[in-house]
TrEMBL record, chain A:
Superkingdom, natural source: Bacteria
Protein name, entry field: Uncharacterized protein
TrEMBL record, chain B:
Keywords: Ligase
Organism of this sequence: Desulfomonile tiedjei
Residues covered by the AMP-dependent synthetase/ligase domain: 101-299
SUPFAM superfamilies: Acetyl-CoA synthetase-like
Record's protein name: Phenylacetate--CoA ligase family protein
AMP-dependent ligase C-terminal domain residues: 350-442
Gene3D superfamilies: 3.30.300.30, N-terminal domain of ligase-like
Presence of the UniProt keyword Ligase in the record: yes
């Protein structure tokens, strides 16, 4: 099945994820588990941005 | 990030006991219901015992839940869905990781994990590695033949999660691994105690290196066998490498449930936010909650979902302590770690014998090498123990003198007599992963 997905409509959702993960990361300097797991989420969010062709905008 | 924080998870690792109990009960109820609703095996087991999820109202109620033994898992895995059987609680499409037990005690058991489970594995390992001093500034070498044995895979992923530089020492031979560790200036490594000693032996006697001064390893995490909490073995490893050596304990079916912290209290912390550890009397099966009485560990992994581990009969012999650790964790301690295995602790001439006691004696005697082998058999109607040991490289000790010393120290420690064979250096078998040094040729098991 072919779906029509507009990457531009999904991009703000990814930006929200990125912003929330960044808040967790910034606030967890003394909590290694939160800090390192949010850092990994940020890396995965970067993959979402690549998936959406962010750099081709 | 602040590297000086001593806890991977400062919140969970310092929870007051009553809060830990609340958390463990809540998690047990959740995983029990999860398995009951999704797995035919678990549902049948619990229905036969007349117990349902709503019946679990306290941690005491958990003891009513039937145990699962490894032999049951082997039987399950002859059923669908292939290859895991009906203990599986997720669709096969969600399984991302296949591992299997080492097969030390029989037919290997297959273990399914989802990606969530795999994150959980690395979280458990990250907890223990951080507790042992691993930080993002470490360069960790894994001298391990990456395959279906789970332990060091999880260690590898945990190192990545922590932010360590992670070096897979996969298919290299022992010499090449040592030289690579030297070349890249590795600061830490993880392997079995047997291999820690074997690598030191190879470095010293085949490469002319002194691991303590020529290699920069500062900490070593052991898994797969006891040893890092057997005092004489720990001392040998720490002296050979000039490093701190830490124990960790886990199993493929369970997860990484216990660890020694950087304060080295001679005990393991149970990771109680992730596991519910219960001890049962080996003969009566009655719960043991107080300190100082050894029994069999029955354990639940509270967050593992694909192939849940609920009240698993680990066969590990452990005991609780009520001592508080100087590290500040509230997680309960088990002195001496895994003291033995119900499979291995056996009566010889009416006396309970734990192979770890023999190891502690052998490795406390200067001039003896690291390898040994114990064979118990019947000669006529009488139990007989043969202990084979090796002299260390270049040792020149009169055989009679060594036999007499070993015999005396073993008699004091284990209350048993031994036939002792002393072999020259390099003649007993070497092991890389799990050593098999104890052979009971009589009918096996605890009698």
């Amino acid at each position: 099945m072919e779906q029509q997905i507009d990457p531009k409509q999904l991009a703000p959702i990814v930006e929200d994820l990125c912003r929330l993960a960044q808040v967790l990361y910034d606030r967890s300097q003394d909590w290694p588990a939160l800090n390192r797991n949010s850092r990994r989420i940020l890396a995965s969010v970067e993959m979402l941005k690549i998936n959406l062709g962010r750099d081709s905008d | 990030m602040n590297y000086d924080v001593p806890f991977w998870n400062p919140y969970l690792e310092t929870l007051p006991r009553e809060k830990l109990d609340e958390l463990r009960l809540k998690k047990f109820r959740r995983i029990f219901r999860w398995a009951y609703e999704r797995s035919k095996f678990h549902r049948n087991l619990y229905q036969q015992a007349g117990i349902q999820p709503d019946d679990i109202r306290s941690l005491e109620d958990v003891a009513k839940v039937p145990k699962v033994e490894k032999s049951m898992m082997r039987d399950i895995q002859r059923k669908d869905p292939f290859p895991y059987g009906d203990a599986l609680c997720v669709p096969l499409d969600e399984v991302t990781e296949f591992r299997q037990t080492s097969g030390t005690t029989g037919q290997p058991v297959y273990q399914a994990d989802t990606w969530q489970d795999w994150e959980w594995w690395s979280e458990c390992w990250a907890t223990l590695l951080w507790a042992q001093g691993y930080r993002p500034s470490d360069r960790v070498f894994l001298p391990f033949g990456y395959n279906i044995f789970v332990a060091f895979w999880a260690g590898h992923y945990a190192c990545e999660k922590i932010g360590c530089e992670t070096v897979p020492g996969g298919v290299l031979d022992t010499k090449a691994r040592i030289l690579k560790m030297q070349e890249i200036k590795a600061t830490a490594m993880m392997c079995t105690p047997t291999y820690v000693l074997g690598m030191a032996d190879t470095a010293t006697n085949k490469l002319g290196l002194n691991p303590a001064s020529d290699l920069g390893i500062r900490r070593i995490t052991c898994a797969g066998e006891p040893g890092a909490l057997i005092p004489a073995t720990k001392k040998r490893m720490e002296q050979a490498w000039g490093a701190k050596v830490f124990d960790h304990v886990g199993a493929t079916e369970i997860g990484a449930w216990g660890f020694e912290c950087a304060d080295q209290p001679g005990a393991l912390h149970v990771n109680e936010a992730m596991f519910l550890a219960q001890i049962e009397d080996m003969e009566t099966g009655e719960p043991i909650t107080g300190p100082g009485k050894p029994g069999k560990l029955v354990i639940t992994a509270l967050d593992r979902i694909a192939q849940p581990c609920i009240r698993f009969d680990s066969k590990d012999i452990v005991e609780f302590s009520d001592d508080k650790c100087s590290c500040g964790r509230t997680y309960r301690l088990m002195p001496g770690g895994v003291i033995g295995r119900a499979d291995d602790i056996t009566k010889v001439k009416g006396v309970l014998l734990a192979p770890s006691a023999i190891e502690d004696v052998v490795r406390s005697i200067p001039g003896l090498g690291d390898e040994y082998e114990v064979v118990v058999e019947k000669r006529g109607d009488v139990d007989h123990i043969l202990l084979k040991v090796e002299l260390s490289e270049g040792a020149e000790i009169p055989q009679k003198e060594m036999e007499a010393r070993l015999s005396t120290e073993l008699r004091v420690r284990t209350n048993l007599g031994y036939e002792i064979q002393i072999h020259s250096y390099g003649t007993l078998p070497r092991f890389e992963v799990k050593a098999r040094r104890f052979k009971d040729l009589r009918k096996h098991g605890v009698s």
